[in-house]
Known about the structure:
This protein is mainly alpha-helical. Helix content is 65%, strand content 5%. The protein has ten helices and four strands. The strands form two sheets. It has a two-stranded antiparallel sheet with strand order 1-2. A two-stranded antiparallel ribbon has the order 3-4. The longest helix is centred in the middle third of the chain and has 25 residues, at 97-121. The protein is elongated.
Amino acid sequence: xxxxxxxxxxxxxxxxxxxxxxxxxxxxxxxxxxxxxxxxxxxxxxxxxxxxxxxxxxxxxxxxxxxxxxxxxxxxxxxxxxxxxxxxxxxxxxxxxxxxxxxxxxxxxxxxxxxxxxxxxxxxxxxxxxxxxxxxxxxxxxxxxxxxxxxxxxxxxxxxxxxxxxxxxxxxxxxxxxxxxxxxxxxxxxxxxxxxxxxxxxxxxxxxxxxxxxxxxxxxxxxxxxxxxxxxx
Length: 233
């Protein structure tokens, strides 16, 4: 492992990111033992407490596991949960195009299905809120405001769908989206050409028209997908 000096606090976060990158990049392949904590502390020029905290976070994510008398063995990240997604999509060099395409595809499929379900399950209050959020996206004064409203719109759509798995997936994606808002800004580029999709989807959900709601959301997600991927090509 190359010698890397940790420069900023909290130090444990820096150590965590270095080790996470090593696992996800294959520098530490599945089944391999991590270097001892003492070795890592010396290599990274940090104290043992910072290394312990970083390794504990890796263990919580199920990226490593402790085996009696062996130390910490690396697990295959593909066996982990959605918590690892943030670290896969956004790496040291920014957004990873391959992983991002998979995330956007899953997002489009989930939101399209959620829209159809929401049309049949939404409450009156949820339907009215979706229309309100659609109008607020159209009138947002800044890109940052539009991004927050975009996420709020889709989060409410998923809530209205009444599927707890969709809700939990959305919750997992929230941190990825909001903590890296600048990277996802192209989703809302030229939003004047997108706003009618929000309103059509919201009105279709309120009218109970599942096919029309799903179609409007699919077209919106596809348009956003094209914009973001274009910036990475």
